[in-house]
Amino acid sequence: MNKTVIETKRIRLRLIDISDLTSIHTLHSLPETDTYNTLGIPSSMEETKAIIEPWIKENRSEEIKNYTFAIDNKSNGKFMGLFGLKIGQQKYKRAEVWYKIHSDYWRKGYATEALKAIINFGFDTLKLHRIEAGCAVENIGSIKVLEKSGMLREGRLRQILPLKTGWSDNFQYSILETDERSK
């Protein structure tokens, strides 16, 4: 079983397990965190469990291709959100990141801190060449996180995100192993 843990000054990223079910359900049930979410708000704990069980199974494999991390506050151990790193085909050495932070922790630098740590993990440990991310063009908070983490905006995909408000365009971002980055 994989025991990957990534630590920064203020947070710990660890692979999720079933004990995180209630915290993940609460996170996914917050209307403010659902604005740019394509999953929608789960109607029950059972629905959330069905969503995360494949993530947990993948986290238990020896060669993870789709990491799902819980973000914990190091000072008090509280669950702060989720972070994903999905690795593409090996020959491309590429991965995509996503994250969802509890609104209690917005605008405090935690998402940026987590993304920088994931970028360093991807390049230094997993030996990736490219890490990508996308976000709705209206999602100013995520745009700031991606740019503060050293990612560059590469383009715009038109009407690709099926949000509850309708189809949204998506900005595409990336960072390369050769780009300057924060450690």
List keywords for this structure.
alpha+beta, acyltransferase activity, transferring groups other than amino-acyl groups, Aminopeptidase
Structure description:
Pfam families: Acetyltransf_3 (PF13302). Residues 11-172 form the N-acetyltransferase domain. This is Protein N-acetyltransferase, RimJ/RimL family. One of its GO terms (molecular function) is acyltransferase activity, transferring groups other than amino-acyl groups. With 183 residues, the protein is α+β, with helices and mostly antiparallel strands. It has a single domain, classed as Gcn5-related N-acetyltransferase (GNAT) (Aminopeptidase). Helix content is 29%, strand content 34%. It contains 5 helices and 8 strands. A hairpin with a 5-residue loop joins strand 3 (66-73) and strand 4 (79-87). Helix 1 packs across helix 3. The longest helix has 16 residues, at 110-125. The chain is globular and about 45 Å long.
Taking pLDDT < 50 over at least 5 consecutive residues as the criterion, the unreliable ranges are none
CATH C-level class is Alpha Beta
Task: Write down the secondary-structure element order.
Answer: EEHHHEEEHEHEE
Computed CA radius of gyration, to the nearest angstrom: 16 Å
Mean pLDDT: 93
Relevant CATH superfamily:
Gcn5-related N-acetyltransferase (GNAT)
What strand order characterises the main sheet? 1-2-3-4-5-6-8-7
Total of domains: 1
Number of H- or I-type helical stretches? 5
What CATH calls the topology is Aminopeptidase
Protein name: Protein N-acetyltransferase, RimJ/RimL family
GO molecular function, one term: acyltransferase activity, transferring groups other than amino-acyl groups
InterPro entries: Acyl_CoA_acyltransferase, GNAT_dom, N-acetyltransferase
Keywords: Transferase
